[in-house]
Amino acid sequence: MSKLDNQMDKINQQLKAKGYKLTHQRAMTLRVLLENEQDHLSAEDVYMLVKKTYPEIGLATVYRTLELLTELHIVEKMNFGDGVARFDLRDDSQEHMHHHLICAKCGVLKEIQEDWLLELEQRVQREFGFTVTDHRLDFTGLFQSCSAGECKRGKDTKAS
Ligand SMILES: [Zn+2]
Ligand SMILES: [Zn+2]
């Protein structure tokens, strides 16, 4: 079984456990999300990509599927400051959401999969009696390559 089939299978189990079926349309939407995991796609991006192999699908269906996956905590709806909601897959081997590094100039994004906040969470529990169930941590700044002028947006402006 390929990694993608494996992931599909796992999510199918998650859906089943909550009483949902992995319909063809849901499967197509999910496949696009999995295939482009690093890209943090918007609903429109997902729609355009699903349409390539499944032209009959409607934007509303894609929206509904993404909302359902968000409700079930299979994906997370993220906002990286550009006003567009983006969908990000959660890794079920990690209890908490992964961290993001975002270039302030071009928006290029990298993920840190490891949970670096465990110590901080324990401290919050100790000092506030507050149990952390999840968190989001997005760092905004500049990658070395971006400060060196290899920023995606830097290139764009130079070209125009
Ligand atoms: Zn992410
Ligand atoms: Zn950049």
From TrEMBL:
Identify this protein by name.
Answer: Fur family transcriptional regulator, ferric uptake regulator
Binding of Fe cation occurs at 135
Q: Which domain of life is it from?
A: Bacteria
Cofactor binding note from Swiss-Prot or TrEMBL: Binds 1 zinc ion per subunit.
Instruction: Quote the CDD domains the UniProt record gives.
Output: Fur_like
Q: Which organism is it from?
A: Paenibacillus algorifonticola
**Do you know which InterPro entries this protein is assigned to?**
FUR, Fur_C, WH-like_DNA-bd_sf, WH_DNA-bd_sf
Could you say which cofactors this protein requires? Zn(2+); Mn(2+); Fe(2+)
**A GO term for molecular function:** zinc ion binding
Binding, Zn(2+): 103, 106, 146
Gene3D superfamilies from the entry? 3.30.1490.190, Winged helix-like DNA-binding domain superfamily/Winged helix DNA-binding domain
Q: Which GO terms of type biological process are on file?
A: negative regulation of DNA-templated transcription; regulation of secondary metabolite biosynthetic process
Keywords on this record? DNA-binding, Iron, Metal-binding, Repressor, Transcription, Transcription regulation, Zinc
Q: Which family does it belong to?
A: Belongs to the Fur family.
Q: Does the keyword Plastid apply?
A: no
